[in-house]
Amino acid sequence: MTVAILTLLLLTALLIAWWLHGDKLRAAYYRRREKPLTDHQRRQLAKDMPLYPRLPLAQRRKLEGLMVSFLSRVDFIGCEGLAVTDRMRLLVSAQACLLLIGRDEPAYPTVHSVYLFEDSFVNKAPHYLPGGVVDTQGKHLAGESWEDGRVILSWAGCLHAAAQPFDGENLVVHEFAHQLDQAKGLATGAPLQQSLPDAKRWQATFQEAYQRHCQAVRGGFYGLIDPYGATDPAEFFAVLSELFFERGADLAEAEPDIYRLLVAFYGLDTRSWH
Ligand SMILES: [Zn+2]
């Protein structure tokens, strides 16, 4: 009886401690799992991601710190028989954390799992078409970002994105830009800003550029920005983020106001990378 009461008291104390200090305990637990990158991992990353060795030293060190934290906390799950390797974990985390190297925040605290497919995958959720038609065949996709902290990626797409750092397309940057947008809930193309004036500036500049892009796509005269950006404001933000990290100078020339907005948001000027 005494043992039962003591056990109950101990469990109650643990529950109270978890309730009061859960975040700190979790952070301490994950900090113990953090391991600095080895030279072998750095060499592997430099081979797969030519941008990594080109980054200024301070940004490279910041990237590595974010990766170490990300890798200690996020589960990587191979799908349809894919065996997840250290190379895969490295390359996904490096490209995901690239978005944060100029920002003062931890590495995606809301992301808990990355699902990797060898190549494209099929989203089997019913797709509602105009006229009430329901398409249950599914669409082949390279990536998805879910609001509950899951990201789904094609490994072939991750490899290609890293190997071609200046073509203006990057699957991982795209999906993790959605995660930044989704940190507040639904992806809307208006990620959280530092202040109300920043949010108002974002809204005005971004909306104007989005409407202009939609009009250009309807007329068939779009330029640098992928027509997929006209899908909705969330996709516009993700597509612009890909350009910002891969073709910063071109974006600055084509859309100087948008570029300035992204420089303020990402805390970076990427023109010097290319
Ligand atoms: Zn998207």
List keywords for this structure.
two-stranded antiparallel sheet, Cyclin A, domain 1, alpha/beta, 11% strand, globular, Collagenase (Catalytic Domain), 274 residues, four-stranded mixed β-sheet, binds zinc ion
Folded structure, characterized:
The chain has 274 residues and is an alpha/beta fold. It has two domains: 29-183, Orthogonal Bundle (Cyclin A, domain 1), CATH 1.10.472.150; 188-274, 3-Layer(aba) Sandwich (Collagenase (Catalytic Domain)), CATH 3.40.390. The protein is 56% helix and 11% strand. The protein has helices spanning 2-33, 39-48, 51-54, 57-73, 86-98, 155-163, 171-182, 196-219, 233-246, 248-254, 256-266, and strands at residues 75-78, 113-117, 121-123, 127-129, 133-135, 139-141, 143-145, 150-154. The strands form three sheets. A four-stranded mixed beta sheet has the order 1-2-8-7. A two-stranded antiparallel sheet has the order 3-6. Strand 4 (127-129) and strand 5 (133-135) form a beta hairpin. Helix 2 (39-48) crosses helix 5 (86-98), helix 5 (86-98) packs across helix 6 and helix 7 crosses helix 9 (233-246). The longest helix has 32 residues, at 2-33. The structure holds zinc ion. Zinc ion binds next to helix 7 and helix 9. Residues 174, 178, 235, 238 line the site of zinc ion.
Largest sheet: 4 strands, mixed
The CATH superfamily name of the largest domain is Glucose-regulated metallo-peptidase M90, N-terminal domain
Arrangement of strands in the largest sheet:
1-2-8-7
The low-confidence runs, each spanning 5 or more residues with pLDDT under 50, are none
Query: Rg to the nearest angstrom?
Result: 21 Å
How many distinct beta strands?
Answer: 8
Number of separate domains: 2
Question: Can you give the mean pLDDT?
Answer: 89
| Total of DSSP H or I helical runs spanning 4+ residues | 11
CATH top level of the largest domain is Mainly Alpha
| C-alpha termini separation | 71 Å
Helix and strand sequence:
HHHHEHEEEEEEEHHHHHH
The helix/strand class is alpha/beta
Bound molecules: zinc ion
Q: Could you please say which CATH topology of the largest domain applies here?
A: Cyclin A, domain 1
Helix content: 55-70%
Shape: globular
Protein name: Zinc-dependent peptidase
GO molecular function: aminopeptidase activity; metallopeptidase activity
GO cellular component, one term: cytosol
Pfam families: Peptidase_M90 (PF06167)
